[in-house]
Write a structure and sequence with these properties.
Blueprint (H helix, E strand, L loop, with lengths): L1 H10 L3 H5 L12 E6 L3 H11 L4 E7 L3 H10 L8 E2 L2 H5 L6 E4 L6 H10 L3 E4 L7 H11 L7 E4 L7 H11 L6 E10 L16 H4 L5 H4 L2 H4 L2 H11 L5 E7 L11 E7 L5 E7 L7 E9 L2 E6 L2 E5 L5 E5 L4 H15 L3 E2 L1 H20 L3 E2 H6 L2
Parallel strand pairs: 1-2, 1-4, 2-3, 4-5, 5-6, 6-15, 7-10
Antiparallel strand pairs: 7-11, 8-9, 8-16, 9-10, 11-12, 12-13, 13-14
Helix pairs in contact: 1-14, 6-7, 7-14, 12-14
Length: 377
C-alpha cells in the first residue's frame, strides 16, 4: 500500500506544497465559518474547542437525531440560534461555510469526507479513516481529488502536540541511537462487563451505539488503537509490512467487538512494533503510551508528557501544557487562516490500514501481509 498512498500523495498531498504560493489567504480580521457534521460526544467536545477559538464562528450543525443537536446547543457556547440540519448535503451546500468538522460514526467517515471534498471545504475529520478496507480506499480516492488550497486534517492530535514533536526531534536527531523496537499500550476500561439495556430502539443502535459494533467502528483496534499505531508509523516514517496477533472477547456484554488483543507488527529493516490493548480495566484506569527503544536510550510519549530515559541518572520529563486536541484545533485554524494547505488524508489512511492489518491477523490467527490486507476488499 505504500505505493498506493505515495502515488496518491503525488496527485493530492504532496502537490499542495507546489501550489502553496497560490493558496488563498483570509483577511486579517475575518473568522473561519465552521459547520459540524455529527453532534455526538466527540463532535460536541471538539466543537467546543473550535467555539472557544475567537477566530472561529460555528455557523451550522448537522445530526440525524434532534436530541443530539439540542444537546450540542446546550454544551457548545454561542450556537443557540445556529441553523441545524438532518442532511449533511444541506449543510455542505452552504457556500458561506469555509470548513467542516466531521465527527460522525467511523463507518460514515469515507462518505462524509468524500462529500466535503466535492463541496470544496476545509476538513477536520475525526479519526480513523474508515471502518474497513473498502471504506478507507474510498476515502483515499476522494483525497486524491482534494482542492490543493485546502487544509485537510484528521483527529490524530498527537501529531500536533509540542511534546510529541519534541520527542520526535530527539529521535530524528540521532540522539536515541538506532531505533530497535517500538511499543504502543492502550490499557483502559470501557467494555460493558455487566448486562446493558439500551434506552433506544434496536433500529437506532447502528448510529446510537456505533462504537460497540465491528461493522460501524472497525472494532476497538481501529476506532481506539489507531492513535498509538499512527504514532508508531509517524516515528518509523513508514507502515508495517506484515502482522501477527491474537485477541478475544472475555467479558464484554454488548455489541460484537473484542475486549482484549495484542499484535506484533514487522516494519522494514527488521524493526518491530508491539500493540497491547484492552478495554477490560477497572473504571478510570488509564495506561496509554508509546515507547521507542534505541541503542542510546528510550523515549516514552503520552498525551500528558514525554520522557527521555538517557541513563539511570539522567532522565528528562516534560509535561504537556494542555489537552493536545487544543493544539490540533489551533493548528488547523492557523494554517487555514494563513493559507498553508496540507493533506493529512494519506497518513490517516495508512494508520487506519495498519489497524485493519492487525485486526485481520487476529481474525485469521496467522501472519498477514500489507498486500493481502489491501487485496481483501
Amino acid at each position: 500500500m505504500r505505493q498506493f498512498t505515495r502515488r496518491a500523495a503525488l496527485t493530492g498531498g504532496a502537490a499542495i506544497l507546489a501550489s502553496s504560493k497560490a493558496a488563498f489567504t483570509f483577511q486579517a480580521n475575518s473568522q473561519v465559518t465552521l459547520g459540524i457534521i455529527g453532534t455526538g460526544g466527540r463532535g460536541r467536545f471538539v466543537g467546543k474547542l473550535f467555539a472557544d477559538d475567537p477566530r472561529v464562528r460555528i455557523a451550522a450543525l448537522c445530526d440525524v437525531y434532534h436530541d443530539q443537536i439540542d444537546r450540542a446547543k446546550t454544551e457548545i457556547p454561542n450556537i443557540e440560534h445556529v441553523p441545524a440540519y438532518t442532511s449533511y448535503h444541506d449543510l455542505l451546500a452552504r457556500e458561506d461555510l469555509d470548513a467542516v468538522l466531521i465527527a460522525t460514526p467511523v463507518f460514515l467517515h469515507p462518505e462524509h469526507f468524500e462529500a466535503a471534498v466535492e463541496a470544496r471545504k476545509h476538513i477536520y475529520c475525526e479519526k480513523p479513516a474508515g471502518a474497513d478496507v473498502a471504506g478507507v480506499k474510498r476515502l483515499v480516492r476522494a483525497a486524491q481529488k482534494v482542492d490543493t488550497t485546502k487544509v485537510i486534517q484528521f483527529g490524530f492530535q498527537q501529531r500536533f502536540s509540542p511534546e510529541y514533536l519534541a520527542a520526535l526531534d530527539i529521535l530524528r536527531s540521532g540522539k536515541l541511537g538506532e531505533l530497535l523496537l517500538m511499543r504502543s499500550d492502550w490499557l483502559l476500561g470501557g467494555a460493558p462487563i455487566r448486562p446493558f439495556e439500551s434506552p433506544y430502539p434496536r433500529e437506532q443502535w447502528r448510529i446510537r451505539h456505533w462504537g460497540a459494533f465491528r461493522e460501524t467502528s472497525g472494532d476497538f483496534i481501529v476506532e481506539q488503537d489507531c492513535h498509538g499505531l499512527d504514532v508508531l508509523n509517524w516515528f518509523a516514517q513508514t507502515h508495517p509490512l506484515k502482522a501477527t496477533g491474537a485477541g478475544g472477547r472475555k467479558k464484554r456484554t454488548f455489541g460484537d467487538n473484542l475486549d482484549h488483543l495484542n499484535v506484533t507488527y514487522e516494519y522494514p529493516d527488521g524493526l518491530r512494533g508491539f500493540l497491547a490493548a484492552t478495554q477490560l480495566a477497572v473504571k478510570r484506569y488509564w495506561d496509554v503510551k508509546e515507547q521507542f527503544f534505541g541503542t542510546e536510550g528510550v523515549l516514552e510519549t503520552e498525551r500528558k508528557y514525554y520522557k527521555w530515559h538517557r541513563d539511570e541518572n539522567n532522565d528528562l520529563v516534560v509535561n504537556s501544557k494542555r489537552e493536545i486536541t487544543v493544539d490540533a484545533v489551533e493548528a488547523f485554524v492557523s494554517d487555514l487562516l494563513a493559507g498553508k494547505p496540507r493533506n493529512m488524508a494519506f497518513d490517516a489512511a495508512d494508520s487506519t490500514f495498519t489497524s485493519l492489518l492487525g485486526r485481520m491477523a487476529i481474525e485469521t490467527r496467522r501472519e498477514v501481509t500489507w498486500e493481502e490486507m489491501l487485496e481483501s476488499a
